[in-house]
Amino acid sequence: MATSVKLDDDLKNRVQNLANTRQRSAHWIMRQAIRDYVEREEAKESFKQEAIASWTAYQETGRHLTGREVRDWLNTWGTDEGTEIPKCHE
Prior knowledge:
Elements: H1 9-22, H2 26-61, H3 67-74
Helix pairs in contact: 1-2
């Protein structure tokens, strides 16, 4: 699938300068930038969908952990007192 992207002269020059500095082609720089952007936006969307699902589950069941319970559990990570994740409750 061939796609064209129109860039203003300033951005085109910035991409070319970066490409020269990195000893890459302008095409490679643009593909990498688009790839990085898409991956970042996909991760944001995944996080958002996970948060919505968690909120929906909480609304349906009322099961949760308090912030304090989570902090106390996280504080055991990497220590000899490491514990399993606490059980959710209503």
